[in-house]
Amino acid sequence: MAQDRPHEFSQADGEILRPALGKLWGMLIVFLLMIPAAALMAYCWWFQVELPGGKTLSNKAGIVSLLAIPLALLLVLVPVALIASAKQLVIAANCVQLLSRGRVVVHIPYENVAETYAKGQGSAGVVGLRLRNRDDPATLVPSWTRDRYEIQVLTYGKPLESVHKAVSQRFSKFSTSRR
């Protein structure tokens, strides 16, 4: 990516959205705690451990606990991936950037954006930018990006609508000022 470019991109001034790392770590802890809880429940069912009140777990509870263990293991991957890929989002007057450790890793100037869109609801979804020319030298996107770049809103702990509104307003202001 950056090695293909003749110059480094500098950080733009604009609204900065920081990753909601507390929320992501909280998700990770909850999913990690699901694993031993489900394992304890499966143990109690398998060995017919008598619970307080003299009851034992039913077969349905045992099956649910056995299914919850691999499900929790898969769910752990979601916050791990989001934490690993968490980047600061900069919504500037002339571009959108993602920063990783103070370095620009994604730079999309509005003049290379055909439209913006939002998919999803609440705080889960993506804000997308449809690119005019993925190979524009003023644009820095990952090599697997085709004609669209999507920003995961869950990472920032903001509602999808507010992130999309901020990006589309800046894009609209840029578009009208260029006419």
CATH topology of the largest domain: PH-domain like
Largest sheet strand order: 1-2-3-4
Order of helices and strands: EHHEEEEEEH
Name the overall outline. Answer: elongated
Round the mean pLDDT to the nearest integer and report it: 92
- Count helical runs: 3
Measured distance between first and last alpha carbons: 31 Å
Helix-strand category: alpha+beta
How many runs of DSSP E, i.e. beta strands? 7
CATH architectural name of the largest domain:
Roll
Tell me, what is the CATH class of the largest domain?
Answer: Mainly Beta
Largest sheet: 4 strands, antiparallel
Strand content: 15-25%
Q: Please state the CA-atom Rg, rounded to the nearest Å.
A: 22 Å
Low-confidence stretches: none
Number of discrete domains: 2
